[in-house]
Design goal:
The chain is globular. The protein has a single domain, classed as Rossmann fold (3-Layer(aba) Sandwich). By secondary structure, it is of the alpha/beta class. This is Uridine kinase.
Length: about 200
């Protein structure tokens, strides 16, 4: 992984004084995105460059808006898990023009969204991590995109034993949505860098 991070950093646009660079870490569930982000963040901070890390899963909507909506489960996960247009207007479009974002952040314990202020320095590497980042509404707001490619069996084995027992949910919800993303968006081909993990 160390070599992968070093090689990745060489390809990411340099953060100049007064500049914000937006880096996307895309990949399907359990492909290793969060681990890669932590490692990149550590390397960048050693160079005295500010980083701001945003996890797209922090901005999902309440359960009633993404479950039992009458749509197929894969559709709910891909299209309703996030308010795609709201995030486009309030997160992605404002990343470089504002130093302060007001974002609706999901709280799992109360199943509610709460407004949170996110401050971004003038000179900063903004790292956004999550699934489906290259959907049409968001893709043009990134300066550089890394896709972590990992086969489904390997990713599934990284789930907890309890989670693995509910394979029907994966088949109906997650895997169908992932297939839709791969087939309609072609994230591997669209990425600036693909890392096999």
């Amino acid at each position: 992984m160390e070599d992968k991070i070093t090689n990745s950093l060489k390809k990411i646009p340099k953060v100049e004084q007064g500049q914000k660079v937006v880096l996307g870490i895309d990949g399907l569930s359990r492909s290793g995105k969060t681990t890669l982000v932590r490692n990149i963040e550590q390397h960048i901070q050693e160079k005295n460059i500010f980083t701001c890390v945003l996890h797209i899963d922090d901005y999902i909507v309440e359960r009633e808006r993404r479950y039992n909506t009458g749509n197929e489960e894969w559709y709910e996960y891909y299209n309703l898990q996030w308010d795609v247009e709201w995030l486009k207007e309030n997160l992605f479009k404002k990343l470089k023009e504002s130093n302060e974002l007001q974002l609706l952040t999901y709280d799992n314990s109360s199943d509610s969204q709460k407004l949170q202020t996110v401050r971004i320095p003038n000179t900063c590497l903004i790292i956004i991590e999550g699934v489906f980042l290259q959907r049409e509404e968001w893709r043009n707001h990134f300066d550089f995109m890394i896709f972590l490619d990992c086969v489904r069996d390997e990713r599934f084995n990284r789930e907890s034993g309890e989670t693995q027992t509910n394979i029907e949910k994966f088949e109906k919800r997650y895997w169908k949505a992932e297939n839709h993303y791969l087939e309609t968006v072609s994230p591997i081909e669209q990425s600036d860098l693909v890392i096999q993990n």
